[in-house]
């Protein structure tokens, strides 16, 4: 008797309903599709699948038992579609469901937006210290961020869970309230600055779109926008004809440049391309060398007969080139540095000499790096002369213009970049003077074929003939941050960017004049700023005449005194005005690893801080070569469009006030400390200012000289009794004018 269709279906059902045992190979763990229909899967409306599975267990088992015993054909029919009244999205918004965070909810998101808007407004507008130093002790900060366990959010395990509101409140209290105010007009020490307001809603838009520009399939329109943005900057620097850009802007085989997360990755990418182009495949010989990218550096150098490979640049090169040399197999010794002149620009004569030496030694020069705006001084190398040297030696010429590149928009300052148009590659940072959020850099290629030297493909994405941007980038998955730069270029415009960079450079030049002609003579300028970075240092009262009017250079001990005062002025300035008195005291005592230490010296005491409501601003500090010495210097960076001349003047005023206190502290600390160590001490007093002059110390137990030389005061037997009656002030007690020579 032939089997009916119902019998066939019943047998199939019985065969499919296998018991779930550890030995079974049932990949779906024994659960059938209709156990949890797609219209309402169990994980949509519960804290986890485990809980829902336990809730449904009885119903599932009953269905299976019924099938094993044989049921009607109705049991095997697909479930009835849910009623239109069933709102699946409403089930996602159940507060016990993790999917509530993935489904748009007008009320919840609007509430969070209002809360965040208030936090942002307060952060950007309310008076506050800059918080460039630690606002709390390291111990208290570590205690706040000391959880190494991912928390549970399920209420079913007895935990109350953390709502988005609770989380943001904790972030505000622990992070935002004392986060560094990089947008403060008095934050004139680093390259991070205030941003145009439109980047904040754009950041939210990018988070909602969540595009991945590694491939066209996850960035169908952003891919084209990114290529357009690269072309806009390429034309500013290389000024090719319109037909050039029409041909290459969207060519899948070519690239005018690539975006990356910052200048470090851009510089590494440029050096990667330079190395691969210097050691290419050789298909013209029987040896058939396949290139350094295929066979590695050792074989490549051997094939071409080189004894090594190096990157050459100024000693003020960015530290990212150390990383590039390491990653490319050259090592730290493969980074050759050239001295700079008194304006911190590469000496081209030394470059030519060194290149000739390397050529004679059969060393491959992968690239020569010119800098358009060094990170320490803002100086610009003579790019045109360097380009000529590279052309005559057939060497890849790279310009690191991460900082100074936007001067290209300034009619007044663009001439300083003359020669950059000959660079094979250029690094630009959008998050510096193109005013985009952090994490946006790019490298430009003069020749659209340069990127082919580093092209990598795959089978599932970045295929050979695709428009995928990931073919030419070091990084893989990337956010579509190019939208931020596209917005800056379009909304600020060429004329707006010109206004911003010209104003910043002008303000820095004005500050250098103000500092150099300050009536107190408290500062010494180290150079004339070419961009908007300026270096100077603090000069103690007793040395100002010698520095500003004398031809004699400072002695080593005098320079050491200047360096210590400069370091302490910078750290104290950064700490004054913060609510943490402990932080102020620690900052005032601090100095970097180069500061002298001595076990005989007592810890100095800090003068009373400025009133807490008087927020003093921030300047950074660096160490550079100046007058044949490595010296500590204030590093002043003026890039914030909100910084006014009054802000600059206020920071200078506080530096002078703090400097007067610091130099007394340094003198008192060292002089009184060595006196207590029973050393031979002689000193002189600056009677005009009432400030003790530096002291010469000749140690019996140490050869370290503490302070500058001064004429010795000869003592005789008749003075012994007067010296015996000398009262030495305690540490922290202010010595009287003329002490100890008024006895």
Polypeptide structure, described:
The protein is an alpha/beta fold and about 750 residues long. It folds into 3 domains: about 80 residues, no CATH class; about 280 residues, 3-Layer(aba) Sandwich (Aspartate Aminotransferase, domain 2), CATH 3.40.640; about 190 residues, no CATH class. Helices cover about 40% and strands about 10% of the residues. A 7-stranded mixed β-sheet has the order 1-7-6-5-4-2-3, with helices on both faces. Strands 8-9-11-10 form a 4-stranded antiparallel β-sheet. Helix 18 runs antiparallel to helix 19 and helix 18 crosses helix 20.
Structure in a nutshell:
The protein is an alpha/beta fold and 743 residues long.
How many independent structural domains?
Answer: 3
Sheet with most strands: 7 strands, mixed
CATH class membership of the largest domain: Alpha Beta
Unreliable segments (pLDDT under 50, ≥5 consecutive)?
12-64, 579-613, 674-743
Quick one: overall form?
globular
Indicate the radius of gyration in whole angstroms: 34 Å
Q: Helices and strands in order, then pairings?
A:
Blueprint: H1 5-16, H2 49-69, H3 88-92, H4 106-125, H5 138-144, H6 164-176, H7 199-209, H8 222-238, H9 242-248, E1 257-260, H10 263-278, H11 292-295, H12 297-304, E2 308-314, H13 320-327, E3 335-338, H14 348-360, E4 363-371, H15 383-393, E5 396-400, E6 425-429, E7 441-445, H16 482-516, E8 523-525, E9 533-538, H17 544-549, H18 556-575, H19 581-589, E10 620-626, E11 629-637, H20 645-676, E12 680-682, E13 685-686, E14 691-692, E15 696-698, H21 720-724
């Amino acid at each position: 008797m032939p089997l009916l269709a119902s019998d066939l279906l019943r047998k199939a059902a019985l065969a499919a309903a296998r018991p779930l045992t550890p030995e079974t190979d049932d990949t779906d763990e024994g659960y059938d599709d209709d156990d949890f229909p797609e219209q309402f899967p169990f994980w949509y409306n519960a804290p986890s699948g485990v809980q829902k599975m336990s809730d449904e267990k009885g119903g599932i088992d009953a269905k299976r038992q019924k099938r094993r015993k044989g049921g009607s054909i109705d049991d095997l029919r697909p479930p009835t579609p849910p009623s239109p009244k069933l709102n699946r999205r409403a089930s996602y918004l159940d507060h016990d469901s993790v999917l509530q965070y993935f489904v748009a909810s007008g009320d919840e998101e609007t509430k969070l937006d209002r809360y965040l808007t208030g936090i942002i407004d307060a952060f950007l507008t309310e008076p506050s210290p800059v918080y460039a130093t630690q606002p709390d002790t390291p111990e208290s900060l570590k205690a706040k961020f000391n959880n190494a366990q991912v928390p549970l959010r399920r209420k079913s395990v007895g935990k109350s869970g953390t709502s988005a509101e609770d989380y943001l409140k904790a972030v505000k209290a622990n992070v935002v309230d004392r986060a560094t105010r990089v947008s403060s007009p008095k934050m004139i020490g680093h390259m991070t600055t205030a941003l145009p307001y439109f980047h904040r809603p754009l950041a939210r838009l990018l988070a909602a779109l969540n595009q991945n520009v590694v491939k066209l399939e996850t960035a169908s329109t952003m891919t084209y926008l990114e290529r357009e943005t690269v072309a806009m900057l390429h034309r500013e620097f290389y000024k090719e004809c319109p037909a050039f850009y029409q041909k290459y802007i969207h060519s899948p085989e070519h690239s005018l440049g690539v975006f990356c997360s910052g200048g470090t990755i851009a510089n590494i990418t440029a050096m990667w391309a330079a190395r691969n182009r210097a050691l290419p495949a050789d298909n013209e010989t029987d040896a058939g060398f396949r290139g350094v990218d295929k066979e590695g550096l050792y074989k490549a150098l051997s094939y071409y007969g080189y004894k090594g490979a190096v990157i050459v640049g100024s000693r003020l090169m960015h530290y990212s080139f150390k990383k590039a040399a390491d990653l490319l197999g050259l090592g730290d010794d493969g980074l050759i540095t050239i001295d700079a002149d008194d304006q911190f620009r590469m000496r081209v004569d030394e470059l030519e000499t060194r290149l000739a030496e390397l050529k004679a030694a059969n060393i491959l020069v992968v690239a020569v790096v010119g800098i358009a705006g060094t990170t320490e001084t803002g100086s610009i190398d003579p790019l045109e002369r360097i380009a000529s040297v590279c052309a005559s030696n057939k060497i890849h010429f790279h310009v690191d213009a991460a900082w100074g590149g936007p001067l290209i928009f300034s009619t007044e300052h663009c001439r300083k970049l003359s020669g950059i148009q000959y660079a094979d590659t250029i690094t630009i940072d959008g998050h510096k003077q193109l005013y985009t959020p952090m994490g946006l850099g790019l490298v430009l290629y003069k020749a659209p074929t340069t990127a082919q030297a580093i092209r990598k493909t795959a089978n599932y994405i970045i295929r050979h003939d695709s428009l995928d941007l990931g073919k030419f980038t070091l990084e893989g998955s990337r956010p579509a941050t190019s939208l931020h730069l596209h917005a800056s270029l379009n909304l600020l415009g060429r004329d707006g960017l010109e206004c911003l960079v010209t104003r910043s450079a002008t303000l820095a030049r004005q500050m250098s004049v103000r500092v150099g002609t300050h009536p107190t003579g408290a500062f010494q300028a180290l150079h004339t700023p070419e961009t908007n970075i300026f270096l100077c240092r603090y000069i103690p009262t007793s040395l100002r005449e010698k520095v500003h009017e004398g031809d004699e250079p400072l002695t080593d001990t005098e320079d050491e005194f200047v360096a210590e005062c400069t370091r302490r002025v910078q750290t104290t300035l950064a700490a004054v005005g913060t609510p943490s008195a402990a932080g102020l005291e620690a900052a005032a005592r601090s100095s970097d690893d180069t500061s002298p230490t001595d076990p005989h010296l007592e810890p100095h005491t800090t003068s009373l801080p400025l009133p807490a409501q008087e927020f003093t601003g921030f300047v950074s500090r660096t160490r550079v070569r100046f007058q044949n010495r490595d010296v500590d210097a204030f590093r002043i960076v003026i890039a914030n469009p909100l910084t006014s001349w009054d802000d600059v003047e206020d920071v200078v005023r506080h530096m002078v006030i703090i400097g007067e206190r610091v130099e007394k502290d340094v003198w008192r600390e060292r002089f009184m400390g060595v006196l207590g160590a029973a050393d031979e001490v002689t000193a002189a007093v600056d009677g005009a200012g009432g400030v003790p002059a530096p002291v010469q110390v000749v140690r019996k137990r140490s050869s370290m000289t503490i302070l500058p030389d001064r004429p010795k005061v000869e003592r005789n037997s008749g003075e012994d009794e007067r010296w015996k009656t000398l009262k030495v002030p305690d540490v922290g007690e202010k010595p009287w004018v003329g002490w100890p020579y008024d006895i």
